[in-house]
């Protein structure tokens, strides 16, 4: 009984960890919204996020990969630089601006467009093929179009307000409640936030493409993540020093700001990377991507009940369509991966079963002749020895007879 329970729990490990990952993301995004509307500079938030992440990941890279990682080449360093810019500083700057101008539900919905945007950019860089004739290719194309259309619907159509129950609990400070409401209801802010969201998902898609190429050359995730966080820390510090003139923004006390930057550094940029890498190795990248909509549901609940955000019909329809488009893209990619793995396995089986791999042992007749010759030599040697023994015996007998004759004469 206990063995069955342990076996079931072991099979559920990837699912449990991915739920924890999405909870971390939802928690940090909610804190982002709170501190930004509380007056903290988004550029300072990004600086502390990557500084905390670098301080957390560097010891892990030193402990687990110090002895087995090779020296970094200039190509790897350049790819790490691009990852730190596109996946770090630029992506997080645009994301926080989008979060400040819109709602956490909107930001989470836009986040689910990253797979579709990655597919479009992969087509542009000729890393993907437009296979319209097969079902998998059609699913990816249709899913991408649905996702883009849903994002436009989410941006330009609000619809009627959906009444939700209230817990009479707000995560905002009383003076910032009106600010949150004005940010979530302004059409101009929503449009500007959508543009920031477009830049965010494009930056993340470029980062994923570069990261995949970097992983082929340098498959050491702790070290590559540490390099990315270091680059993001340096670039975000430089950007913040050039744009932020209020030095009081750099101060962190024992408040929500410290909790936010510490959670962002240890969670999404730290522990989440480790858990996602483990889940990708155990269950595959598509399994990991399928949990993205869970964050959308969590943030829709938190935003409506605890952050004074209004839930509209357009948000619900757009969110549902984005999730549908996401799963169509993932389904198409999954079919292509299965076909690719099947072809690879078939080619491997064909090579292993080919006649060239069969070892044939041929016994030459020369070996038999040599063996017979050796046997004949051994036989002749034995015969010679027997002949020599018989000669010695005759000589001994003749000597005895001679002695007897001699003794008789005496």
From TrEMBL:
Example of a GO cellular component annotation carried by this entry: membrane
UniProt keyword annotations, A-Z: Membrane, Transmembrane, Transmembrane helix
Keyword Membrane applies: yes
Pfam (any one): EamA
InterPro entries per the UniProt record, alphabetical: EamA_dom, EmrE-like, WAT1-related
Molecular function per GO: transmembrane transporter activity
Region (Disordered): 371-410
Membrane topology: Multi-pass membrane protein
Domain EamA span(s) in chain numbering: 16-150
TM regions (residue ranges): 12-32, 44-64, 76-96, 108-127, 139-157, 191-209, 221-241, 261-280, 287-307, 313-331
Record localization: Membrane
Domain of life: Eukaryota
Biased composition (Polar residues): 393-410
Sequence similarity: Belongs to the drug/metabolite transporter (DMT) superfamily. Plant drug/metabolite exporter (P-DME) (TC 2.A.7.4) family.
Protein name (database record): WAT1-related protein
Species the sequence originates in: Acacia crassicarpa (northern wattle)
């Amino acid at each position: 009984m206990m063995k069955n329970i342990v076996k079931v729990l072991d099979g559920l490990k990837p699912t449990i960890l991915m739920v924890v990952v999405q909870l971390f993301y939802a928690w940090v995004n909610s804190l982002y919204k709170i501190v930004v509307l509380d007056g903290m500079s988004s550029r300072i938030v990004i600086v502390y996020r990557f500084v905390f992440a670098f301080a957390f990941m560097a010891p892990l890279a030193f402990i687990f990969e110090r002895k087995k990682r090779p020296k970094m080449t200039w190509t790897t360093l350049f790819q790490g630089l691009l990852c730190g810019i596109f996946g770090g500083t630029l992506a997080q700057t645009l994301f926080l601006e989008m979060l400040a101008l819109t709602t956490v539900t909107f930001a989470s919905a836009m986040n689910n467009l990253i797979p579709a945007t990655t597919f479009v950019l992969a087509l542009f860089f000729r890393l993907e093929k437009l296979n319209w004739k097969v079902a998998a290719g059609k699913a990816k194309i249709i899913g991408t179009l649905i996702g883009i259309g849903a994002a436009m619907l989410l941006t330009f159509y609000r619809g009627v307000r959906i009444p939700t129950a209230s817990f009479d609990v707000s995560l905002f400070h009383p003076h910032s409640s009106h600010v949150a409401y004005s940010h979530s209801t302004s059409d101009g802010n929503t449009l500007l936030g959508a543009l920031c969201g477009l830049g965010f998902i494009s930056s993340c898609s470029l980062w994923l493409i570069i990261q995949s190429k970097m992983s082929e050359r340098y498959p050491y995730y702790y070290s590559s993540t540490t390099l990315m966080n270091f680059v993001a820390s340096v670039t975000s510090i430089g950007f913040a020093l050039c744009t932020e003139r209020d030095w009081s923004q750099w101060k962190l006390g024992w408040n929500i700001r410290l909790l936010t930057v510490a959670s962002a550094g240890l969670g999404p940029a730290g522990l989440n990377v480790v858990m996602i890498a483990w889940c990708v190795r155990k269950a595959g990248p598509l399994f990991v991507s399928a949990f993205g909509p869970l964050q959308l549901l969590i943030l829709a609940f938190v935003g409506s009940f605890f952050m004074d955000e209004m839930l509209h019909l357009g948000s619900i329809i757009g969110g549902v369509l984005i999730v549908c488009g996401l799963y169509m893209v993932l389904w198409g990619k999954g079919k292509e991966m299965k076909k690719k793995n099947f072809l690879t396995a078939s080619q491997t089986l064909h090579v292993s079963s080919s006649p060239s791999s069969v070892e044939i042992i041929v016994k030459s007749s020369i070996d038999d002749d040599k063996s017979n010759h050796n046997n004949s030599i051994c036989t002749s040697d034995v015969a010679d020895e027997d002949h020599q023994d018989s000669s010695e015996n005759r000589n001994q007998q003749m000597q005895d007879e001679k002695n007897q004759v001699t003794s008789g004469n005496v």
